[in-house]
Amino acid sequence: MTVELTRPVSRRTLGVETMLVLGLSLGQSAVYAAVSIIAKLTAEGGLSRQTAALNTSASARPYLDLTYQLLGIVFALLPVLLAVHLLARDPGDPVRTLGLDFGRPGSDLARGAGLAALIGLPGLALFWAAAQLGINATLVPAALPDLWWTVPVLILAAFQNSILEEVIVVGYLMTRLRQLQWRVGAIIATSALLRASYHLYQGFGAFLGNAVMGVVFSLFYLRTRRVMPLIVAHALLDIVAFLGYALLPREWFTWL
Questions:
Q1: pTM of the predicted model over 0.90
Q2: Per the count of CB atoms within 10 A, which of 36, 81, 178, 219 is most buried?
Q3: Which residues contact residue 231 at a Cβ distance below 8 angstroms, ignoring those fewer than 6 apart?
Q4: HSE of 7 in the Cβ direction (CA atoms, 13 Å)?
């Protein structure tokens, strides 16, 4: 007797799978961000008097803190491996399908740098305007102690953020929504709003800025079918933000 080991995947199965992947990753972050913004809005002094800190210390003991930082980076990337594994059920190599391979290093680096410049410079202006309007919390991009491993960990954290967000929110999500026969406009809007929602803990300026970034990145992916330049762009933006805040005089960032 022959046992059937595979069967066509239904739209319902793809929909449930997508919700589970998001629930284990950035969808979960979006829920926590919504709770966080409510807490900040209802706290004494309002939103502008609150702080949103990234890359915070996990222990007063340096080597234990380093261990926690590295474990956090590794485990945060597991949803990416899960998403790629699930996409492997589709025809073709999922790494190539997502444009996650290293086949075009020069082009990916150049396009990524261009995207970073396109997003980064207007983004700084938006953050300044949001701070003046009091619609953002005070942002602290790096709150780690000044130790020998601080810079390498911040760089790793930047790549962790970029890989997680671009593979899940752009590559995986947009692939699945296309298979679910969503309209292109709805796919772009969903990806962009998800990206904006898990940054909401930083304030409404960050929400708007990341929504715009999400639209730009989604349109780029639909045109090129490559997520690697998006990872490069996102990593560059985060590296500049994290290292700049950690290494430059603190008074330069009072406008955040």
A1: yes
A2: 36
A3: 100, 112, 159, 162, 163, 166, 167
A4: 5
Residues 174, 187: Cα–Cα separation, whole Å: 6
pLDDT in tens, 150-199: 999 999 999 999 999 999 999 999 999 999 999 999 999 999 999 999 99
Q: State whether residue 138 is helix, strand or coil.
A: strand
193/22 Cα distance (integer angstroms): 13
pLDDT in tens, 10-43: 889 999 999 999 999 999 999 999 999 999 999 9
Quick one: tokens of 2?
Answer: 């022959």
Q: Dig out the tokens for 254 from the structure.
A: 């009072």
Do the beta carbons of residue 215 and residue 188 sit within 8 Å?
A: yes
Report H helices in the chain. Answer: 11-23, 26-41, 62-76, 78-87, 94-98, 105-133, 150-165, 173-179, 184-197, 204-224, 228-247
CB atoms near residue 30 (< 10 Å): 20
